[in-house]
Amino acid sequence: MSAAEPAIDSFARRHRYRALEALPWLAALLAYVLLPGYLPLGAQILAMILFALSADLVLGYAGIVTLGHAAFFGTGAYTAGILAAHGWGEPITGLFAGAAAAALVGLVSGFVVLRTTGLTMIMQTLVVASLLYEAANKASWLTGGDDGLQGMQVWPIFGLFRFDLFGRTAYWYCLAVLFLCWLATRHLVHSPFGRSLTGIRENVRRMHAIGAPVGRRRLVAYTISAFFAGTAGALIAQTTAFVGLGFLNLERSGTVLIMLIIGGVGRLYGAFIGVPLYMIAQDRFSSIEPVYWYFWIGLLMVVVVVFARGGVLGLFERFAR
Amino acid sequence: MNAEPPPALETRGLSKSFGALTVANAIDFRLERGARHALIGPNGAGKTSFVELVSGGLRPSAGNVLLDGADVTQLPQAARVKRGLARTFQISALFRRLTMLENVTLAIAERDGVAGGLLRPAGRHRAVIEEGFALLDRLGLADEALRPVAALAYGRQRLVEIAVALALSPKVLLLDEPAAGVPSSESGIVISVVERLPAEIAVLIIEHDMDLVFRLARRITVLVQGRILVEGTPEEIAADPRVRQVYLGERARR
Predict the structure, then answer these.
(1) Which of A126, A152, A286, B59 could serve as A241's disulfide partner, Cβ 3.0–4.6 Å?
(2) Three-class SS string for A217-245?
(3) Where are the domains of chain A?
(4) ipTM of this predicted complex?
(5) Residue B146 and residue A206: Cβ atoms within 8 Å?
(6) How many CA atoms lie within 13 A of B52 on its CB side?
(7) What is the pTM of this model?
(8) What is the pLDDT of residues A251-289, one digit of tens each?
(9) pLDDT tens per residue across span A81-140
(10) Of B52, B108, B114, whose CA–CA distance to B80 is shortest?
(11) Is the Cβ of A3 closer than 8 Å to some Cβ of chain B?
């Protein structure tokens, strides 16, 4: 067998960047130029892509089904929000604080949640998010409770770029953070650690049988995912200068899964397709039918589940074959 | 006695009960170094339970498991794998949507302790990939190395089952019905791979197919209702009237 064996080479090259991967970033730049009126929505979409990407890491790669991912999103948002409302509005450190707090919640809750499997685990993820929701509701002196957190003052980025009314700074900020987190996530899923997560998703019994420390791998993945989810929450908090209980509720956890499923789970780019599709559809539908827009989202979901298993990306893959 | 090296695998009084059901009843078993040993018995004799108990998937109710003379009864499955114990599954347990090459490289990466790595892409672990490919090549599977396992013929999937276990460089290999479900047209390739396993590996084959057992095993243990009925050479087993009654008799009735 020679070292130039083509199968080995192509296997060893899987982590290299392909031209197609530039597409989402070109689209984001194009949107900035062509749709200047939609930049605030665009910034939200970018942050939600990061949230969905973090969910993909646990659901699509590690095979952990969660209905409580909002716990980390909300923790990141409230941490950054509370800091900014109490005199520390520096965005970069606020972002890291939110991410770190979310990662801590992920580590501690994951320690308990990941010991279980199947339905029990789904219920546990739900419980963690519900507990945080009620805690935020109860601690209204700190969080603003039902009214949401008021009075956030976010300082200019690097002391230079002030958050403007048109959302230009917010857009660039979200785009830059998403890009860095995407680079990190992409590196992660192509690392031996990331490949072993895929192994856990595909067959956990076999992973045990080849001697993998399955529990530890899952916990690390869960914590990293919580870190990115917290980053996404903090981004939205900082760019909208508001945090409410909606950052922590079941709808938030469910919506991110729907977005991911529409785009395609376990493919790294499902988030980049599903989130814009969902949020633009929501924006359009809700301006046409302010009350019933959820019906159309529901219909879209049914169509995806019935006709396009694997989401939009799954469809592309089928046609590419 | 003391100068003699310990057997590759040994169980002492190994027992397991689920309530009133006893699947392993005080099993004393020795798998010598480099053995080609078969464990046979009628359906429900407790053969797969024995594999689970030895490999660490099940906790015994009583008794001990020794690997290379060291008691591993309290060790989890992963630690037993690190000590050279590998197993295959009666019902294929593979990474079905991943390529054949990835199935074996995942195991090699675990064996080498590089599977938790975050810094370098998996593709840069060139030695792991080359070893995985060489392993597939040895088993005659290299031509489909980059196809997902789910797309392979079933006989080949059974070979991947063995390949993943071999990727761990085991000292003891437990093969749980390696040819199960393989159509007779393909079972030849499975048999020839088992025949050509490296001589230094101690192999325990759990098998239903008598032709396969008598072809491969140099020693046979008959398990009935969680208990060892008899152990001996293939000739002894074939001639034993109790075995005929319990096992071969059951087969003749079918």
Answers:
(1) A152
(2) HHHHHHHHHHHHHHHHHHHHHHHHCCECH
(3) 30-249
(4) 0.91
(5) no
(6) 15
(7) 0.92
(8) 999 999 999 999 999 989 999 999 999 999 888 888 887
(9) 999 999 999 999 999 999 999 999 999 999 999 998 889 999 999 999 999 999 999 998
(10) B52
(11) yes
Give the A:B interface size as CB pairs under 8 Å: 132
Question: Three-class SS string for chain B?
Answer: CCCCCCCCEEEEEEEEEECCEEEEEEEEEEECCCCEEEEECCCCCCHHHHHHHHHCCCCCCEEEEEECCEECCCCCHHHHHHCCEEECCCCCCCCCCCEHHHHHHHHHHHHCCCCCCCCCCHHHCHHHHHHHHHHHHHCCCHHHCCCEHHHCCHHHHHHHHHHHHHCCCCCEEEEECCCCCCCHHHHHHHHHHHHCCCCCCEEEEECCCHHHHHHHCCEEEEEECCEEEEEECHHHHHHCHHHHHHHHHHHHHC
Contacts of A189 in chain B (CB under 8 A): none
Q: Return d(Cα B247, Cα B232) in angstroms, integer.
A: 15
- Across the interface, do A210 and B94 touch by the CB < 8 Å criterion? no
Residues from chain B that touch A3, judged by Cβ atoms under 8 A, are 130
Sheet of B9-18, strands arranged across: B21-31, B9-18, B62-67, B70-71
Contact call for residues B11 and B24 (beta carbons, < 8 A) = no
Q: What is the fold, at CATH topology level, of the domain defined by B9-253?
A: Rossmann fold (3.40.50)
